[in-house]
Amino acid sequence: MTDSSTYQFIDTPQALIPACEVLKQAKVLCVDTEFHREKTYYPQFALLQVGCNDGVYIIDPVAIKDLKPLWDIITDPNILKVFHAGRQDLEIILEHAGALPLPMFDTQVAAALLGYGQQVGFGNLVQRITRKALAKGESFSDWLRRPLTKQQMKYAADDVIYLMPIYQALKEELQAKKRSTWLDEEQAILTNPDTYHIDKNEVFWRVKGVNKLKPKHLAVLRELAIWREEQAQKRDMPRRRLIADEPLIEIAKRDTLNIDVMKRMRGLNEGVIRRFGETWLKLWQQGMDCPEEDRPKLSSRKSNTSGTDLRLELLDTLLRLKADEASISSTILANKSELSTLASWGNNPHGEPPELPCLQGWRAELVGNALLQLLRGEICLRLNPNTGLPVIDDYKGDATS
């Protein structure tokens, strides 16, 4: 791919045509977007960068209203699209193109599977793989302001120029370590259109503090969160601009509520209460009137039976051993919640184990099956007298490491 001094800025439909002629011949496209969403519900699409070995293009979606010729190329199933941390890029493309840019390769996901860290930044990855330090000065630029500066242009071009060598290096490493199929599994959520659909009836689960509420208060929160989501979409404004999570929880957890009670709550001013207070009272009442069988319920807490904490420590040790062997972060393999669930199940490890990500797909092969074997007494951990480090033995005591 070219260097950052030879990109083309495209801000007219006429200039887009020859760019598309070049791009549609490529087998691999590197793609990035710039956007803002600090003041809006929906992302404000500000810039689209697309590059291949034959050209790098910075495309202005503010100036060019119809990008269909480009969307047809980006959604072409015969062209691989490369992103870094591409979830929000995919959200924008799905909204404007009407389809996801598949097939795809996310370099952040691939890097996590190769031991670079769970959410390694693009600049960090570029430096580690290409030994090139990228400029950081435009990270918080106003990408909607025109004209764009030369520094902004270079920064935007670099975001796709360096994607190509990063992609090539990670692809080769995945193949060498036989982890290419892992990437397909990890990207399953990203490549599913349902990921980008917001179910208004479920958004309350994302509210900070939801795990502290009783079922009747969860029913209230559900009504309030649905209202907030609908209003935020209608007004195209951030949810917190309407009402932040903290006062939303405070309203939901009340057993009695009126306007005077709201006025004594932090995070609610009188203007907002005058505007929405009566609506919130009605929503609160609807939630309180919800039949008990229809109330949301938190997952039951795992019982801390005798030996659970010890089992958790053993599981964590085994997890870290397997992660070290694979040169991968242990948190990618399993989180504390999963290990805790397994430790509780291990009190009586018979029948079907719980459904957990660490027991599915490549994670099961790498660590999940071993976690179950440990709980069932089929393998054990011991200290190697020569190194003082834990190793894994089968049940009969024959060293396996």
Total number of distinct structural domains: 3
Low-confidence stretches: 397-401
In CATH terms, what is the architecture of the largest domain?
Answer: 2-Layer Sandwich
**Overall strand count:** 8
- From the helix content, strand content and strand pairing, which structural class follows? alpha/beta
Please give the largest β-sheet. Answer: 6 strands, mixed
Q: Give the overall silhouette.
A: flat
Tell me the CATH topology of the largest domain.
Nucleotidyltransferase, domain 5
Q: How do the helices and strands follow one another from N- to C-terminus?
A: EHEEEHEHEHHHHHHHHHHHHHHEE
- What is the CATH top level name of the largest domain? Alpha Beta
